[in-house]
């Protein structure tokens, strides 16, 4: 009996030891790790359809996969293949896949490498948590966002404490780790880098405090060593011709121009395209600047990746007074019209106005208003020059104004997607406004005097439908179809060669729409709000669909918080974050 008990105990102990060592012993499972092949410039520009190498898959930020095993005819048959519980925190994750290995960045700067067929852990990297002085910086660490990029045999991580880290893609070991800015005064990364021809290019955010005067900036670093190669500011310096747009405010007192998102790249023009955020504080009343453009806030910047020089800029919202960022994806499409092919850049900020620009010159081509807005009264049809609606610009503290769209935008960080089959850009939108006023606020560390206060409200005539997906023809700028629902669209969109638009809402519904018509083909309630960046990939002949879910600020602020105003958001605490991966059932 004793011998049997000892044998059972030894077996149990060996099993526990094996389980404890499993994540590390999996590194010895060499066949999967050996499958990884370095990503060259050619591969980055011409990725295998099976892979998803960057946050929107390709340099042109289409958010499109040509895979079509999952399609309009069979999407209703999707079944759960595997799931991964993510780190606590708000969910804005963007999974990447190379050679059957998934790289997943999460809150608190945790990176996991997983077997993309079953979710088994290959390696883990946990960035050391710094001793943070301010609650603002702590919040930046607890958001899972598109914070990594793949290039060569490395994973590049942009951290909440303003560091860039290069990890070995096969083992997760640190290759280099550089401090780019001082996180204690507010600088941080809120999005991952773009790697172009051996340069790791990333934009700093959080330039909101007195100690970050001078604004935010974009830097390029050598992918091999981490050495900084150039630095370009998004707030005009005293030597810049745009200096006059700051109305004499000293350079060190200019704040804002955050780079919340990741840029795009055109290899033929050798230009990168990045979007910028508003000036800080959010109103000219609080800034004390008076009316002015405040370049290069709320702009598209075309930048030479070799030198950091701004080649051209286009400002979408001069003199922002309402925190309406234009810092999101830039979608690059070659549009044929009248026998001529034109290189076009498409983007939309929080105003939800879709802008089409010539990406070679920055020339305005056309715009299309989508969600209701009242901050812009006129856009010149020849030049794209914007005229503000001064009736909603605050002129005194405590003045109540009804402003559309809301602080969280007619759209915010949830990315659009392009369908080359339909020749349409598909936008995630919100039919929301807010009551807005500027209030007096005593100066405190990390805060500004005269902050804005926002109370969410429904947009006029939205019939209780907050969430909206709209497809817009990129040739004509005309809308093709729209899909509306009560809950906000809380995740980014994905388009596929199978004719699908994949997305999800704050009421935990994942959905697939017909890219041609917008009709609902599949819908499934998951564990929590749909978040982050859904993507798809193929391994060994099987296509998978990955959908991140979890805690999100969007459902909370997408409508007045009353039961009759919106479908329940099922907003979970940060520990509700998961990655759910689906596939079709085996063929009979």
Q: What distance lies between the first and last C-alpha atoms, to the nearest angstrom?
A: 50 Å
Q: What is the rounded Rg?
A: 24 Å
Number of helices: 6
Shape: globular
Unreliable stretches: 1-28, 445-449, 559-572
In CATH terms, the superfamily is Quinoprotein alcohol dehydrogenase-like superfamily
Give the fraction of residues assigned to helices: under 10%
Give the biggest sheet. Answer: 5 strands, mixed
Total domains:
1
Q: Report the mean per-residue pLDDT as an integer.
A: 88
Structural class: mainly beta
**Strands in their spatial order, largest beta sheet:** 1-36-37-38-39
The CATH topology annotation reads as Methanol Dehydrogenase, Chain A
**CATH architectural category:** 8 Propeller
Q: Approximately how much beta-strand content do the residues carry?
A: 35-45%
Total strands: 42
In CATH's first tier, which class applies? Mainly Beta
Quick description:
By secondary structure, the protein is mainly beta.
Keywords:
single chain, 588 residues, mainly beta, Methanol Dehydrogenase, Chain A, five-stranded mixed β-sheet, four-stranded antiparallel β-sheet, 6 helices, 42 strands, 9% helix, disordered N terminus
């Amino acid at each position: 009996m004793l011998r049997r008990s000892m044998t059972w105990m030894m077996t149990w102990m060996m099993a526990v030891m094996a389980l404890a060592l499993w994540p590390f012993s999996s590194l010895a499972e060499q066949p999967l790790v050996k499958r990884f092949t370095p990503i060259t410039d050619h591969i980055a520009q011409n990725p295998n359809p099976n892979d998803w190498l960057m946050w929107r898959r390709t340099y042109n930020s289409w958010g499109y996969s040509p895979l079509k095993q999952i399609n309009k005819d069979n999407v209703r048959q999707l079944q759960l293949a595997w799931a991964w519980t993510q780190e606590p925190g708000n969910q804005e994750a963007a999974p990447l896949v190379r050679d059957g290995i998934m790289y997943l960045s999460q809150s608190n700067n945790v990176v996991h490498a997983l077997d993309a067929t079953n979710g088994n852990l290959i390696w883990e990297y946990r960035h050391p948590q710094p001793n943070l002085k301010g609650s603002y910086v702590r919040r930046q660490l607890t958001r899972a966002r598109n914070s990594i990029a793949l290039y060569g045999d490395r994973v590049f991580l942009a951290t909440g404490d303003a560091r860039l880290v290069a990890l070995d893609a096969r083992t997760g070991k640190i290759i280099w780790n550089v401090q780019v800015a001082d996180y204690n005064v507010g600088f941080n990364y809120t999005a991952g880098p773009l790697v172009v021809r051996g340069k790791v290019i990333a934009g700093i955010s959080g330039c909101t405090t007195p100690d970050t005067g001078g604004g935010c900036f974009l830097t390029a670093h050598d992918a091999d060593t981490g050495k900084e190669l150039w630095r370009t500011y998004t707030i005009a310096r005293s030597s810049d011709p745009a200096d006059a747009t700051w109305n004499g405010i000293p350079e060190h007192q200019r704040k804002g121009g955050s780079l919340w998102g990741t840029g795009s790249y055109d290899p033929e023009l050798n230009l990168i395209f990045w979007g910028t955020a508003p000036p800080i504080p959010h109103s000219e009343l609080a800034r004390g600047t008076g009316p002015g453009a405040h370049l290069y806030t709320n702009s598209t910047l075309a930048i030479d990746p070799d030198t950091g020089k701004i080649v051209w800029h286009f400002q979408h919202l001069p003199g922002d007074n309402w925190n309406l960022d234009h810092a999101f994806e830039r979608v690059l499409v070659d549009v044929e019209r009248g026998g001529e092919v034109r290189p076009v850049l498409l983007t939309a900020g929080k105003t939800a106005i879709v802008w089409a620009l010539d990406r070679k010159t920055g020339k305005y081509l056309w715009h299309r208003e989508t969600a209701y807005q009242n901050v812009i009264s006129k856009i010149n049809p020849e030049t794209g020059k914007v005229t503000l609606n001064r009736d909603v610009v605050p002129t005194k503290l405590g003045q109540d104004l009804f402003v559309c769209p809301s602080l969280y935008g007619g759209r915010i960080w949830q990315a659009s997607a392009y369908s080359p089959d339909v020749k349409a850009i598909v936008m995630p939108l919100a039919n929301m406004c807010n009551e807005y006023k500027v209030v007096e606020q005593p100066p405190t560390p990390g805060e500004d005097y005269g902050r804005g206060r926002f109370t969410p409200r429904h947009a006029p005539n939205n019939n209780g439908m907050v969430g909206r997906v709209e497809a817009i023809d990129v040739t004509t700028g005309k809308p093709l179809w729209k899909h509306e629902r009560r809950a906000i669209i809380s995740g980014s969109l994905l388009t596929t060669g199978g004719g699908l638009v994949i997305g999800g809402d704050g009421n935990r519904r994942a959905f697939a729409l017909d890219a041609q018509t917008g009709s609902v083909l599949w819908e499934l309630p998951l564990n929590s709000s749909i978040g982050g960046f859904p993507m798809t990939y193929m391994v060994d002949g099987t296509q998978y669909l990955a959908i991140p879910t979890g805690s999100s600020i969007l459902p909370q602020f997408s409508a007045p918080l009353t039961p009759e105003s919106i479908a329940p958001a099922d907003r979970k605490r940060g520990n509700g974050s998961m990655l759910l991966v689906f596939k079709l059932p085996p063929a009979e």
